[in-house]
Amino acid sequence: MPEQRCKSCGEEIIWCKTEKGKPMPVDMAPDAGGNLIILPDGTVAVLKGNDLAIWRTKKGYALHTSHFATCPNAAKHRKKKGTNETQS
User: Fold this and answer.
1) Cross-strand bridge partners of residue 12
2) Is 26 helix (H, G, I), strand (E, B) or coil?
3) For the chain, how are helix, strand and coil distributed in percent, rounded to 5?
4) Is residue 79 pLDDT above 80, yes or no?
5) DSSP secondary structure code for residue 64 in this structure
6) Longest pairwise C-alpha distance within the chain
7) E strand or H helix that includes residue 67
């Protein structure tokens, strides 16, 4: 999992893959309010409902947040639906 800094805001991020294999920036710092776990193979699992409640009570496992949710410049990096172009 490559660690980098966001090109827009400078925060430390980890590049992971979604379950569909797409790259996803994740905040490097753990977040008790997050809903993602980083699996050993570098993919992220999104936790919802009871799974999320159970995971928050487990010790030794860090929850994380998608950097798209926290970056003040995230809209600049979102792709237009059906294209490879970013929104301006």
Assistant:
1) 5
2) strand
3) 20, 30, 50
4) no
5) B
6) 42
7) helix 67-70
CB 63 within 8 A of CB 34: yes
Q: Give dist(CA 34, CA 31) in Å, integer.
A: 5
Residue type, 86: T
The token pair that represents 48 in the structure block: 């919802």
Residue 65 CB contacts under 8 Å (≥ 6 apart), including other chains: 26, 27, 31, 33, 34, 35, 36
Tokens coding 56: 């928050």
pLDDT band per the 50, 70, 90 thresholds, residue 81: low
Please name the helix (run of DSSP H) or strand (run of DSSP E) that holds residue 54, with its range, or none.
helix 49-57
Degrees, nearest 5: CA angle 20-76-7: 85
pTM, 2 dp: 0.76
Cβ 40 vs Cβ 16: under 8 Å: no
Tokens of 29: 């710092």
